[in-house]
């Protein structure tokens, strides 16, 4: 029992938060009657959608001889959707319970329904599919936090792009929230021309649900693109929430644009970054969609390249430096993670440790 009491809950050995929701797929990529294998927090997960359209997620290991269930097919079993293992045909419902073992003969002492695989609660909304990864893999408890909520959104995104970063989730998160790299890494002329020069930025940060926000402000003068697209009176709000969601809302009286970045840890040094973009009442953006998408991809590639370069150093050294105020957000991310683990370990309510503060830097 003493050991149990010391065990930290709410985080895996690899440093990924549990009892948390992770983005796993764009709805449009999950066709009815199909399923696929995906690594999530170093575990194989089958993400699928039944013929009737319900998304589901099961551990992608058949308990019989461990082959991936995702390699099988979906079949109907007494009116219920099931996935049939390709090896010996055991069938599992979307609730993880085994419904059929074809080899059984009358009088065999086995009850298929006593066997089950782990299920992951699934939430699908606005064209996005999330799964809940509970701390305890043996149980299937009610999620302790509701699925992520990014405010009012259109039914589906305008576009979704994703890229695999060769980085631990923590390094990927920190890389994306780092304001100091922008003038060096994202200095394409239409976004941040070198002639823009450095300006002093002063931004008000405030605590929000399991994270923080840069309160509504006018976007920085050196982002030409926003001005061109929206005209006057534009405000920006940027939010971060653990385990790894960052979203930016740009809006004025008529139009709004929301860019959401979701991070999903797959393996120790493999993190999927998915960028999901919504907008409404912005006809100019509809016209620009064909160039908007490659532009967003360019941003991600630029960040991915820095991650690869960073790996060159990480082979030889672990220690990094953190400089105020530019790296305060990176520190907050760590502080939030520790607070999460503390709360989960004590089975207590999560308390946001972040205090409102103004940060200043040059970028
Ligand atoms: S391995 Fe799945 S049924 Fe045998
Ligand atoms: Fe970046």
From TrEMBL:
Stretches assigned to the Rieske domain: 22-131
Protein name as catalogued: Rieske 2Fe-2S domain-containing protein
The entry's keywords: 2Fe-2S, Iron, Iron-sulfur, Metal-binding, Oxidoreductase
One Pfam entry name: Rieske
Annotated source species: Ponticaulis profundi
Top-level lineage group: Bacteria
């Amino acid at each position: 029992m003493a050991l149990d009491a010391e065990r930290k809950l709410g985080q895996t050995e690899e440093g990924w938060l549990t009892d948390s929701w992770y983005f796993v797929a764009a709805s449009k990529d999950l066709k009815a009657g199909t399923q696929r294998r995906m690594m999530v927090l170093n575990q194989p997960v089958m993400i699928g959608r039944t013929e009737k359209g319900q998304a589901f997620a099961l551990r992608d290991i058949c308990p019989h001889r461990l082959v991936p269930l995702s390699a099988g097919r979906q079949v109907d079993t007494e009116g219920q959707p099931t996935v049939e293992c390709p090896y010996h045909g055991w069938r599992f419902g979307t609730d993880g319970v085994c419904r059929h073992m074809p080899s059984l003969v009358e009088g065999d002492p086995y009850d298929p329904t006593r066997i089950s695989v782990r299920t992951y609660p699934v939430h699908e909304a606005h064209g996005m599919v999330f799964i809940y990864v509970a701390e305890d893999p043996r149980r299937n408890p009610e999620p302790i936090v509701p699925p992520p909520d990014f405010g009012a959104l259109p039914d589906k995104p305008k576009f979704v792009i994703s890229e695999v970063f060769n980085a631990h989730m923590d390094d990927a998160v920190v890389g994306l929230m780092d304001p100091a790299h922008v003038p060096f890494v994202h200095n394409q002329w239409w976004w941040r021309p070198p002639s823009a020069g450095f300006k002093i930025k002063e931004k008000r940060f405030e605590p929000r649900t399991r994270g923080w926000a840069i309160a509504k402000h006018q976007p920085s003068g050196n982002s030409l693109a926003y001005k061109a697209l929206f005209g006057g009176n534009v405000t920006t709000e940027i939010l971060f929430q653990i385990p790894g969601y960052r979203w930016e809302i740009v809006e004025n009286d008529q139009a709004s644009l929301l860019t959401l970045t979701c991070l999903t840890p797959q393996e120790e040094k493999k993190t999927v970054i998915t960028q999901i973009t919504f907008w409404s009442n912005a006809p100019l953006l509809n016209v620009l969609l064909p160039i908007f998408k490659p532009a967003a991809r360019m941003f991600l590639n630029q960040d991915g390249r820095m991650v690869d370069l960073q790996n060159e150093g990480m082979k030889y050294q672990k220690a990094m430096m953190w400089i105020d105020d530019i790296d305060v957000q990176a520190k907050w991310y760590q502080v939030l993670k520790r607070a999460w683990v503390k709360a989960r370990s004590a089975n207590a309510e999560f308390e946001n440790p972040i205090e409102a503060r103004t940060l200043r830097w040059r970028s």
